[in-house]
Inverse folding.
């Protein structure tokens, strides 16, 4: 096993040093990749002048003999490869010589069959590609500074892009998996933080981080702190009601009334999140409950807004889940 790790490690260092500069791509050649423990290796065998490589998934048994799990012709010549240690799935990223177009992400199953084959346009919107992805004459470098790994516990590929967007792919089905609400909010928060956009706003009994382009105003403080946080285009208004007399707008007993409902621990506080249909609209409701009921941290903190799409959901969660009560 140590022999495989040594060989793979050396070849990986060699491959990493042979990066493409600008629009100049050297011949891909043949390369070896391995999963994190070194128990499985994957060969990309690319003949000069060919547009498709051969892929060989293998392991080394106790006596050092190489055992092939599958040997298949690939859809392309991949730039990088991730190998699962829990099963025989393999993920190929990008195409050598033209990253960020066809075969941006390909998942191969236990027998080498193609489970999913994504173009970049299947994973990112037109606006994201145009505004957030570094582009050259030949390529679109969507994975620049991205964190990418296979979560062996869930059986999912997880990619966190430079600007915070999360992409998760179920390796068994090849389908894009739903990103948990808290993770979407965290990703949105990362994007705002990179822009230097989030601003801490005092709501009287606590603070929230407010994304750029939003304004806040209080509308009542008789029995609780009430107000509105409004996006610049006026199309999203996040209402809040915080304090001992605010009540609890979302909790487990309302689950049956929700299209979906989640509970999440966030920074020592409990978040109750539900999506409710009301008179033809969809309303996202978030209640934050602190652990200490005797102080402001323990007051029910309620946030809600009528939403139109995922961007609205993310913005509401970025605001609500960053709430911290004064102690």
């Amino acid at each position: 096993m140590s022999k495989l790790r040594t060989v793979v490690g050396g070849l990986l260092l060699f491959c990493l040093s042979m990066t493409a500069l600008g629009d100049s791509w050297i011949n891909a050649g043949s390369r070896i990749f391995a999963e994190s423990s070194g128990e499985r290796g994957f060969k990309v065998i690319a003949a000069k002048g060919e547009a498709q490589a051969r892929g060989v998934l293998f392991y080394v048994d106790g006596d050092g003999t190489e055992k092939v799990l599958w040997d298949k012709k690939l859809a392309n010549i991949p730039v990088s490869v991730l190998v699962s240690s829990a099963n025989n799935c393999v993920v190929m990223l990008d195409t050598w010589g033209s990253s960020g177009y066809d075969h941006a992400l390909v998942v191969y199953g236990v027998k080498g069959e193609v489970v999913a084959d994504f173009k970049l346009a299947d994973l990112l919107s037109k606006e994201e590609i145009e505004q957030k992805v570094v582009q050259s004459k030949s390529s679109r470098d969507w994975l620049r500074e991205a964190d990418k790994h296979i979560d062996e516990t869930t059986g999912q590929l997880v990619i966190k892009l430079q600007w915070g967007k999360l992409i998760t792919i179920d390796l068994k089905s090849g389908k894009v998996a739903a990103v948990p609400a808290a993770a979407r909010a965290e990703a949105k928060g990362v994007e705002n933080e990179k822009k230097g956009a989030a601003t801490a706003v005092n709501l009287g009994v606590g603070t929230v981080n407010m994304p750029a382009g939003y304004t806040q105003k209080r509308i009542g403080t008789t029995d609780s702190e009430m107000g509105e946080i409004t996006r610049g285009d006026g199309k999203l208004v996040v209402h809040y009601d915080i304090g001992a007399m605010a009540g609890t707008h979302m909790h487990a007993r309302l689950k049956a009334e929700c299209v979906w409902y989640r509970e999440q621990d966030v920074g020592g506080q409990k978040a109750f999140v539900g999506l409710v249909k009301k008179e033809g609209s969809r309303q996202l409701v978030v209640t934050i409950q602190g652990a200490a009921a005797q102080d402001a941290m323990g007051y029910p903190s309620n946030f809600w807004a009528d939403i139109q799409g995922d961007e609205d959901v993310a913005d509401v969660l970025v605001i609500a889940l960053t709430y911290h009560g004064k102690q």
Residues 182-325 form a domain with the Protein Transport Mog1p; Chain A fold (CATH 3.40.1000.10). DSSP finds five helices and 23 strands in the chain. Residues 1-22, 293-297 have pLDDT under 50 and may be disordered.
